[in-house]
Write a structure and sequence with these properties.
Blueprint (H helix, E strand, L loop, with lengths): L2 H17 L8 H5 L7 H10 L5 H5 L12 H16 L3 H9 L1 H18 L17 H30 L6 H12 L12 E5 L2 E3 L1 H28 L12 H26 L10 H23 L6 H18 L7 H17 L2
Antiparallel strand pairs: 1-2
Helix pairs in contact: 1-5, 3-5, 3-14, 5-6, 5-8, 7-12, 7-13, 8-13, 8-14, 9-14, 10-11, 11-12, 12-13
Length: 355
């Protein structure tokens, strides 16, 4: 990891530790204040606990033009982003995405869409619905490796993270506390429950928290839709296509709507936010990935609306290209932050227990 980023985060953490004005703002400050000196692992853990709500910055009396020039949200965001790049597997892919995120997303989606268009030659004879364009076996052969790769890559990254922060063996209470925190986005509520200052300085709002929840639950609903459809296909002998009021359709459509709304709101908030309070080098990559995730949801909804029309084949290959790009890019994008935040919250639960 970059020494200069760690040194600056260490300098600011030591000043914050002496001040302690922001003690109740989020999980970062109780964890920060139990330390007297900050190792690289401590700073990495604090950085991944930080949700960049920015409340501490607007409450701080030592920001510029004060000589201390504190900007803890940016310092931790830089370390956090650098840690994701360092822990990514392979590392070169993580660094490349952050530098050229938008171009990589566009090229990947278009490239895979062309691949699927060419693969139409594998369509099953007499297939129904989407399978008339691309056979079920072809889809499985393409997406199964694409699903397994990010799981392996993220597992390697999390192992590297856990070793760096000195994580102990995980027990059920640690997981339970972390999941509860993630479920309601506790660290985006702000120190007084009024929300964070992501949008406009002293204005408290829950908009970013709600956008995060829409994205998270939208993604989980879409994943549940795919999982249920897989079980219905292989265990119950009920292959697609499914009706509007079937479990896969209800889960998928509701998840798609939440993804589109959440990602659209998140992009809007990021464009309005103060870029100097985050990892400025990663801004383009974050926008590109959020846009990609929203496009996955939108293209899925359009695909359903176009079922049975001449638009369906073209929309299908574009949607599948976006989904495949999403899976393969996940370990190197903002999507990975959910896994690292989960690990950071589990480690924080261990700290509070004395581990």
């Amino acid at each position: 990891m970059q020494i200069d980023l760690l040194q600056e985060a260490r300098r600011q953490a030591e000043i914050c530790n002496a001040c302690r004005y922001c003690e109740g703002y989020c999980s970062v400050f109780p964890a920060l204040q139990v330390e007297r000196a900050f190792s690289d692992g401590d700073l990495t853990q604090l950085a991944n606990l930080c949700h960049n709500c920015r409340g501490c910055y607007y409450a701080c009396q030592y920001t510029a033009p004060h000589e201390f020039d504190l900007n803890l949200p940016q310092a931790l965001a830089d370390v956090r982003q650098d840690s994701w790049e360092e822990f990514a597997f392979p590392r070169a892919a993580g660094k490349a995405f952050q530098k050229n995120g938008l171009a990589i997303v566009l090229v990947t989606v278009l490239g895979f869409a062309l691949l699927f268009w060419a693969a139409r030659a594998l369509a099953a004879a007499g297939g129904v619905g989407f399978y008339a364009v691309l056979s079920h076996n072809a889809m499985v052969a393409i997406f199964l490796p694409a699903f397994l790769f990010p799981l392996i890559s993220i597992a390697i990254g999390l192992r590297r993270y856990w070793q760096t922060v000195g994580g102990a063996p995980v027990r059920l209470p640690h997981l339970r506390g972390a999941i509860a925190s993630i479920a309601n986005m506790r660290n985006l509520k702000g120190g007084h429950g009024d929300g964070c200052n992501f949008e406009d300085e002293d204005r408290f709002t829950h908009a970013r928290r709600y956008a995060h929840q829409a994205i998270m639950y939208g993604f989980l609903l879409c994943f549940a839709s795919t999982s249920v459809a897989t079980l219905m296909h292989y265990l119950l002998g009920m292959p697609a296509p499914y009706g509007l009021f079937s479990a896969p359709k209800i889960l998928g459509l509701s998840g798609g709507v939440l993804l589109v709304l959440g990602c659209g709101k998140m992009v809007w908030l990021k464009l309005r936010s103060d870029k100097s309070l985050g990892a400025t080098n990663a801004f383009g990559g974050e926008i590109a990935f959020t846009g990609l995730l929203g496009f996955v949801g939108l293209s899925g909804l359009l695909l359903y609306a176009a079922s049975g029309s001449g638009w369906m084949p073209g929309l299908l290959v574009i949607h599948l290209g976006a989904v495949l790009a999403f899976f393969l890019l996940t370990p190197f994008t903002k999507m990975a932050h959910g896994f690292y935040r989960m690990a950071a919250l589990v480690r924080d639960a261990q700290r509070r227990e004395g581990g």
